[in-house]
Amino acid sequence: MVTRMMIDTAIAALARHRPGVTDWHVAVGAALERALAAAWVPCAERMPEDCVEVLVAVWPSVYIAEREDGEWWAVDRMPSAIGGVTHWMPLPAPPKEPARGHPPGG
Question: Is the entire prediction scored with pTM above 0.85?
């Protein structure tokens, strides 16, 4: 897994090869941060905040779920407890605009 320290080390190494150029390493750092945020996180490493919807992996399936009081709950019409969650990741951001020909909320 990529860590923040690995990102900082890579940016510092790039900066040493291109002294005086600052804008590109900010953009590279931001791109790496987005990639890091979108990566699967092992549950053994850390857990998401309570009551925040995330994607979870229960081999071989993926669900939208949230964690509350140490329990995982699948987010569906009727929430149900799930076990065997090994990894989680933040949900992606929604599209910035609706698909052409589809009104918002429709």
Answer: no
